[in-house]
């Protein structure tokens, strides 16, 4: 039977978030916290929580819950919590402080985020995020995060894409690193106090569900290979996004989807997997040898101007091309926002000029990001103070001096807006399983505005999860559930059997070759532009690739030692299954919105064309079993505070 004649999915019952109170939007979060049940300090010591991940979301949550008195087990696959991928974030963190007195407010941050997500995010969660943003900055300043300051002593701000105000707080081009150090020192304090038990170099390979509740995880000690069972009253996933499904992305090579995907297979719905973000400001691919791509912060678009030659045959040194022969295409097409249009808009615009044959650099896959005007206006010293480490990084990678010649940039896979479905309490469809940060779907719709990832991670970890998890734990205890419980034993045995299968196939193809091929399929057919024909083809190719993987993958070594090939095999197997669901999700969504651009659905000017009548919903996918079709549950998106209309940044 051909792939086109098979049903790709089945329809399930609608789903809804029932946790947000029926009060005015500005009162929902306060009301929900007031309604939440409390756990007194003595009883907190009797409750345990497993948190997977030590980035801004996971690390902040572990530190906060440990300080509250809960017993926390925190896991990461890195050798230190400080190596979590949040460290790579560069440009800044948003907050509606309105220090610039330029018209910003909680409501404007809320509006910009919903509009930036192309009206495909849940209104109540986004409003809470905007409210919480102002508390995050105070928390981080108190921790000693060295935010940039302006001459009067106030914290400095800069703009990011999709907004017309300056609300982004930053620490040069290393904001993520500084924020993570703040969370890390709070976490280490609790580790020293004994409330947090840290497990580094451990990878979660499955979640244990007992009587319908998440009660633990199975993890592999990546040094010894020991498969361990850990039990608790609740499980929290703060494990980041799944951009590495494309093989080449701006994510660290270790970033993966395994924790979320194993939870999905145990009943957690996966929402909007096709909503992936292509970042417009990355160093272009230089050859087949690359294993990852390098991000250049979006903050560079504050002062850098993006352009290509008007004539595609113009191969002169960019410094020799006069102004009249340059096309500052973002400033031309979007005069109101210029170079600060949202990421999805800027990425597609770059692709369009390159497709027209006006791209620059090897293969014509690049555009210029030019700081000549900024250096002339502000002076090199000022530019260096704001962006120096980014310029140094670019020079080290490319061998070119960006102070003297324009940078070359091109879009690349970056963030993922899709993730596990959660309600207003950040609880997944599996009771007791909470999901925070990039691992959940809730805040960014079809496109994330720059500097909002750090905001969501810290909001969830420091302020949203703790009271909601306490509300859940107020109902504990949930019954005895030790490592010897039949479900726990079965889950651990399943993990061991899967490991043995990987080691026993003894095929001829490397894990990385499968990952690279999957990435090529995903980028080609489910990347910046998607079509019905291409997505249908991709589903067939991925299914063939999965069959070949389980027949011919080569995993050398043994389990009882450090075995990175074995680690990657498990991650790539999960990426292959996720890739198929991403293509199915993109195929079923017959509209263009944010990062999901279906070529069949665009305006005459080439902009994304949404279909609010038929697709104003969250697609929450239920695992259909091995060999079965995924089941689609729809959560209708209802907007009461913001009018749903076609985006315009002109």
Description:
36% of the residues lie in helices and 15% in strands. A 5-stranded mixed beta sheet has the order 1-22-21-11-17. Strands 6-3-2-10-18 form a 5-stranded parallel beta sheet. The chain has a 5-stranded antiparallel beta sheet with strand order 12-16-15-13-14. The chain folds into 3 domains: 19-275 and 417-474, FAD/NAD(P)-binding domain (3-Layer(bba) Sandwich); 278-413, Alpha-Beta Complex (Flavocytochrome C3, Chain A, domain 1); 486-616, Fumarate reductase/succinate dehydrogenase flavoprotein-like, C-terminal domain (Methane Monooxygenase Hydroxylase, Chain G, domain 1, Up-down Bundle), CATH 1.20.58.100. 53% of the residues are buried. The chain has helices at 28-35, 41-44, 56-68, 106-116, 123-143, 175-193, 258-265, 329-333, 343-355, 372-378, 380-398, 453-473, 486-505, 511-526, 532-552, 564-588, 612-615, and strands spanning 10-11, 48-52, 71-75, 93-94, 168-169, 196-199, 202-210, 213-221, 227-231, 234-237, 270-271, 276-282, 305-309, 326-327, 367-370, 407-416, 419-420, 433-435, 509-510, 553-554, 617-622, 631-636. The model has no long low-confidence stretch (mean pLDDT 96). A hairpin with a 2-residue loop joins strand 7 and strand 8 (213-221). It is α/β, with parallel strands linked by helices. Helix 3 (56-68) runs parallel beside helix 6 (175-193), helix 4 packs across helix 5 and helix 5 (123-143) crosses helix 12 (453-473). It contains 17 helices and 22 strands. The longest helix is centred in the C-terminal third of the chain and has 25 residues, at 564-588.
